[in-house]
Design goal:
Oligomer: homodimer
Structural class of chain A: alpha+beta
Shape of chain A: globular
Order of helices and strands of chain A: HHEHHEEH
Distance between the termini of chain A: 26 Å
Number of strands of chain A: 3
Largest interface: A-B, 55 and 55 residues
Strand content of chain A: 5-15%
Helix content of chain A: 55-70%
Largest sheet of chain A: 3 strands, antiparallel
Chain lengths: 107, 107
DNA sequence: CATCTGCTTGGCTATATTGCCAAATAGATG
DNA sequence: CATCTATTTGGCAATATAGCCAAGCAGATG
């Protein structure tokens, strides 16, 4: 395989969007139901401006979309397939010292 | 859902390991075959110390493991399930303006 | 045992990210 | 239309990340 800087940067940027505890939580939360910014803010106890910026990162990555109704903005997950990855993350965590059931064995 | 800082930080750290173009490339490359550090270095044209640090990030995250033979260190992917995620990343990229075939529709 | 090769670690600089506050914007309401 | 609420944007400070070079270390080789 050859390393194409641009190809992998494009993909890494999408992954990076999920690579933050708050944004990861939002992805899981929004997979259950849509939420407005103020609801999400209450859930994580951060400044609303911080929450808004996290949401714009997810939106720019194409992972969530938003819908303005009244003066509230509702976000929802656009890509439930990202949840597939989380199963693997759980496997990594639960089997850090043992064999990974979903994965190849590696001492 | 409630936001547990520690829970999501632990998971985000694993995702963060893959959220870099060079490390993402290594994950894909190592899914095909094991490689020593000098081979990977040649593929990405970075200083070998930089490559070594990227590999240690992947290793600390539990995603790859290494095997020293002679004076070479061979790395290989420990968790092929991370590749599942890449399919979703492709879907996000190919359908940024249209509906995601694997995902919910979202204007 | 001196030296070479392959790799890792320490240390530094440049850059990116995160989170807060303050200010701006947009829709709703009196 | 003044004001309130919900959200976004700008700007700043603190922290984290990425890359290089130099130095260290371990196994192989002469």
């Amino acid at each position: 395989m050859t390393y194409s800087q641009q190809h992998f940067t494009e993909r890494a940027n999408i992954i990076k969007a999920v690579a933050h505890p708050v944004r990861l939580f939002f992805v899981e939360e929004l997979s259950q139901q849509e939420r407005c910014v103020c609801e999400l803010t209450a859930l994580v106890s951060l400044d609303i401006s911080t929450v808004s910026k996290h949401l714009s990162v997810l939106k720019n990555a194409g992972l969530v979309c938003d819908d303005k109704r009244g003066n509230q903005v509702f976000y929802r997950l656009r890509t439930p397939c990202v949840l597939n990855f989380l199963n693997c993350v759980e496997a990594v965590i639960n089997n850090s010292d043992a064999e990974l059931t979903c994965c190849t064995t590696c001492k």
